[in-house]
Amino acid sequence: MPEVCGNYVVLNPYVWLKNACVVFKERIEDIYPLGSEVGEGLKNTVVTHGLASTHTHLGLYQIRLSVSEGLPLDEWVKLRAWPWEKFLRSNPQLTYYVALNALKELLKSGVTLVADMHFNEFWVYKALIDVGVKGDLSVAIMDGGVFENFEEGLEENLDLSRRASDPKVRVRLGPCTPRLLTPLQYKEVVETAEELGLGIHTHIAEVLDDELWLKSRYGMSLRDFAHYVGLGNVDTLAAHVVWGESLIEFLSSKGVKVSHPPRSNTLLGDGRAPIKSYLKNGVRVSLGVDVAPTYSLVDDMKSYLVLHYEGEGIPQTHEAFKIATVNGYQDLGFGSGELTLKEPADVVVWELPKDVSKVGLNPISSIVWGGAKVKEVYVNGVKVFEEGNLINVHVSADSINAKIEEYLKDFKRED
């Protein structure tokens, strides 16, 4: 029976054991303490539950650095995202190789569960299965963009829901954003999800233009729109919600979950989401990488703490860790996000730099701020990552990158 031990075993963001081991099969079977003498050899090791990125675009990993160019969201979409996405649509298998690299970097930051919204999602599904990471997938349904029409996007998403059969992966419908669907089209997606017992994953209130667009085109406020399309009638994961102050009561009362990507919101000029107000009023908040210069959720935890505590008190590192683990897992319905008996064994083993371990920081701060390195990752008790390598993918890193380079010979971006 597999067993991992650490100088600290973090049961949840507030409770940890010193010098302990976790025993598991598919689920956690036992957690037990070691004697202090035995624990001497584990001083640089911390064991935690896996993290969840609840809003991710794996297919955009190849253009991740472009979000740092200083372009506002709409300009970035036009000049960087859409040309790349159209290229992916004409070369769907490229999505698989790009997703492998993205998942590898996510695993380097302890991520074991990914909510992904994009195109060619069956290739993303294949990447998740091959790597062994858990997933929540949806297609970015829009009327235009990379699709001929709204119906094409919806059918691709429905086809994904029919074909994705592995229990580690679930499917939602993905009405992309109010500015790329009419309210009636958006409502149809939500009603279809309700009929099929599916959730939805959407971008909403990402930029102020979302509200202005709805008012100018349809005479609706964001709150009017949310009620009209029935966002509260299905399990809803709403990404960004930067301009959602008017939606707080709705989000809280309807159980709508907010995925917050602090770095992409900042780099694309979306604004500063009122996260503290959300949390104070009972809105569920988790963390997502979205598209960022690194696909490291640890980097987003750091950004979360700096962004939302600037001049407003002392950053609470355990809070960032909680929304990256407990909230992410619970919001996506994959478990408690804690190391407890009978929970699925999604386990991460971290190695701390020696100088950090000698200082004696608590294990959460050591991981978030101390430059911890992921040594091993297990999902449902199966080792999927070790010392920087994907265990179950039978394609070498060099081969993956060579495949991508071969495709890139034909890619022309907009300038």
UniProtKB/TrEMBL annotation:
User: InterPro entries attached here?
Assistant: Amidohydro-rel, Metal-dep_hydrolase_composite, Metal_Hydrolase, MTA/SAH_deaminase
| A GO molecular-function descriptor | hydrolase activity, acting on carbon-nitrogen (but not peptide) bonds
| Pfam annotation, one family | Amidohydro_1
What residue stretches are annotated with the Amidohydrolase-related domain? 47-382
**Full protein name:** Amidohydrolase-related domain-containing protein
Gene3D superfamilies, per database record: Metal-dependent hydrolases, Urease, subunit C, domain 1
